[in-house]
Design a protein that fits this description.
With 213 residues, this protein is an all-alpha fold. Helix content is 69%, strand content 0%. It contains nine helices and no strands. It is globular, with a radius of gyration of 24 Å. The termini are far apart. The N terminus is likely disordered.
Length: 213
C-alpha cells in the first residue's frame, strides 16, 4: 500500500512538471503566433499595393510555403486565402514576371504566360468559393484580362458590376474603361474612366500600372 502511495505521488509530480503553462499563457502564445502571421500577410498586401511584386510574393511564401498549391486550408484559412490572392495579383500585375518557383521563373514569354494562367486558375478557385464577393470577382477579371483569350470574360464580369456601380476600386474602373475602348464603346469607356478619376487616390493613373517585378 505504501509503495502504491509513493508511486501515485511520484506520478502526480511528473504530470505537474510537464504540464503546459496556465490557460491564459497558452492562449497568449496562440495569439502571438496568429498576430505574427496576420502582420506578415498585411505586409505582403502593402507591398502589392506599392508595386513591389516580387517582395510581396516572397513575404507570402515565407508565411505560407504551400501558397502556390491550388488547395484550401482549414487552419488560418482566411489568412491563407489572402496570401494566395496576393501572390496571384502580384503575378498578374507584374505581367507574369515574378519568380514563383523553380519551374515558374517568369524569365521567358512561355513561363510568363504559364504564370499568368496559374494566377487566373487560382483566382477562379477563389471566385468559386467566394460566390458573390465583389472584390474576388474583380480580382478574377483583372487576371482574365491579362490573358488575350479571356478578355471577353473579364469585360463581362466588370461590365455587370459597373452597371450597378459596384466596382470597388479605381483600378477596376480603369480596366473596364480600357476594355470598353477596346470593344469600340466610347461612351461606356468615358463613363468608366470618369468614375475611375472620381475615386482614384491622388497620383494614381486610371488604369492598370505598367507591369514591373
Amino acid at each position: 500500500m505504501r509503495n502504491s502511495l509513493v508511486l501515485a505521488v511520484f506520478a502526480l509530480s511528473v504530470v505537474a512538471a510537464v504540464s503546459p503553462p496556465p490557460a491564459h499563457a497558452c492562449f497568449n502564445g496562440v495569439e502571438r503566433v496568429v498576430d505574427v502571421t496576420n502582420q506578415s500577410v498585411r505586409r505582403a498586401e502593402a507591398l502589392l499595393v506599392d508595386g513591389a511584386y516580387q517582395a510581396a510574393v516572397k513575404e507570402a511564401l515565407a508565411t505560407f510555403p504551400e501558397v502556390l498549391q491550388l488547395t484550401h486550408r482549414a487552419r488560418r484559412a482566411g489568412l491563407f486565402a489572402r496570401a494566395q490572392r496576393v501572390v496571384a495579383l502580384a503575378t498578374v500585375r507584374s505581367g507574369g514576371r515574378v519568380r514563383l518557383g523553380n519551374n515558374m521563373s517568369g524569365k521567358t514569354d512561355a513561363k510568363r504566360a504559364a504564370n499568368l494562367a496559374w494566377a487566373a486558375m487560382l483566382l477562379r478557385t477563389h471566385h468559386a468559393r467566394g460566390g458573390d464577393d465583389v472584390v474576388v470577382q474583380v480580382e478574377l477579371a483583372e487576371a482574365l484580362a491579362a490573358l488575350p483569350v479571356e478578355r471577353a470574360e473579364a469585360h463581362a464580369l466588370l461590365k455587370e458590376l459597373g452597371e450597378g456601380d459596384l466596382l470597388p476600386t479605381a483600378r477596376a474602373w480603369g480596366l473596364l474603361a480600357e476594355l470598353e475602348r477596346e470593344r469600340g464603346d466610347v461612351t461606356a469607356a468615358e463613363r468608366a474612366g470618369r468614375r475611375c478619376r472620381e475615386i482614384a487616390p491622388e497620383g494614381q493613373v486610371c488604369g492598370p500600372k505598367p507591369a514591373t517585378a
